Here is the input.
Amino acid sequence: MARKPKTGPASDPELLILSSLASGPKHGYAIMGDVETFAGVTLAPGTLYTAITRLVEKKLIAPQSGIGRQRPYTLTAEGATGLTEQLNAMRRIATAGLRRLRPA
Amino acid sequence: MTNWIVRILLRFYPVNWRREYGAELADMLLARPLTVNIVGDVFRNALWQRLRASEISTLVGLAMLLVMLNGLVWNIIAPSPYGSAASMLLQNLWGSNLYVLLLVGCGLWTHLRHGGKLDRSGLAAVKISFLAGIPVMAAGALMLSGVLGVTVLRPGDTPTTLQQHGFTYTYYDATLRSCWVRVEGSEGTWKAIQSISCPPAPLGVLVAPLFTLPASFLWGMAGGLLGRWIARGRRHVAT
Here is the structure.
């Protein structure tokens, strides 16, 4: 199992939610499970919904009409662009950092 | 039991937020065991949502309440010397230019954010004043009930601590000072006289903050008026 990152961008709830929704619409509970699987991070319910609120306000994700009380959330075009930019930036940093760490 | 805790936890969230996400969060909380960590996380985030949803006047008012409460507690535990900023702020909030600017600024912000009538800006400033006045009113109520005593401090007096003076509010009296006067009829003789110590009336302390509310309203409206001019200027530039 992946080591649980405590701090840093890899544990940022907003980034994790956006990454989870990149594979398709999910409701809160499914996002939580998915994030736990691919990132090894357990998002507590309060933190998860605070991040969802922020993302909806920023129009990076949008709620869809769902069955029952659980609504699925979907990544907006703006959200997809933002996520791509963020992940590319992280990849650049990770590549540079790992290259520098490699013994000469 | 869990149902009951979840319902209470959700109550901490703002109404609008609850309407939007409450059902989803409740379902999620009920679907898994409710640990102390989860309760803490939900509570912390509920407060955060409340803070985000609050008006600027509520936040500034709460900050002022904390400043005043801090001043009151320190006044009782270890009063600052006569004339210090902390002592003067507690006793005469209106003596602070910063406080007046705060009221004007809040009125300005309220108008720029919400627009509408100027009385909304005035009411925002009233809210700040009321919240800031709560510690003073509490002190008045404690004085009135005889729980809190009053010590009058004159210029030059050294304040005493809680151990020395007990549960007492230290009142700073600017009019209470010693002065030298020439005694009538005896040429060249000077005598020290001192005004009589007159502690504040508990009922006066209790209601004093309420009397500041109309002035706060006016300062808030002044800020709102400023906001209206700025908004007009912006529209003018835009066209």
